[in-house]
Design goal:
By secondary structure, the protein is mostly helical. It has two domains: 54 residues, no CATH class; 82 residues, Lysozyme (Orthogonal Bundle). Helices cover 54% and strands 8% of the residues. The chain contains six helices and three strands; from the N terminus they run αβββααααα. It has a three-stranded antiparallel beta sheet, with no helix packed on it. Strand 2 and strand 3 form a beta hairpin. The radius of gyration is 39 Å and the shape is rod-shaped.
């Protein structure tokens, strides 16, 4: 059996070993390189990651946020440009690729808009769009669910009309 004195001594040795192990396992202040290869500095009131402190990280974050805002503005501008100013030439060429009659479509679009190729063209008779469709004629095409002001729908409807033999409904030949 162990005596009281030996038990006390054994307890003190155990506590000392536990204290040394705890101190050895605790992170030390100052510079150190982690297992992931990044350099960290942790100390009293200072923190750094790869030699850069929080102020620099915050400035970098704000700069990136400004870039994001600028890119979003450019995207909005491009989106407005795409919606507001569709490419008439692309619309007519698309209709020509789908239905044929490229020269005829270009000639009629030039004649119907007076050479402006304006998809918002309108005349007093009620005809509207790139190919000057009357509302009743527009409703008879498969593109009637789309806006008559869309150059794509307008050109495709004109190409479809030529394909099905209704190309003579325009005053422009």
């Amino acid at each position: 059996m162990i005596g009281r004195r030996q038990a006390s001594l054994l307890l003190c040795v155990f506590v000392a070993v536990a204290a040394v192990a705890t101190v050895a396992a605790a992170p030390t202040s100052g510079s150190q390189r982690g297992d992931d290869g990044h350099h960290r500095t942790i100390g009293f009131g200072q923190t750094a990651f790869d030699f850069v402190g929080p102020e620099r990280w915050a400035a970098r974050y704000r700069a990136k946020q400004r870039e994001v805002v600028t890119l979003r503005r450019q995207l909005r501008k491009q989106r407005r440009l795409l919606v507001a100013r569709p490419d008439v030439g692309e619309a007519i060429n698309l209709a020509a690729m789908v239905y044929g009659n490229q020269e005829t479509l270009w000639r009629k679009a030039r004649c119907e808009t007076g050479g402006t190729f304006d998809p918002r063209a309108h005349n007093p008779s009620g005809a509207s769009g790139l190919f000057q469709f009357l509302p009743s004629t527009w409703r008879s095409t498969p593109y009637a669910p789309f806006s008559v002001w869309s150059p794509y729908a307008n050109a495709l409807a004109a190409g479809w009309m030529h394909k099905v033999g209704r190309g003579g409904e325009w005053s422009c030949r």
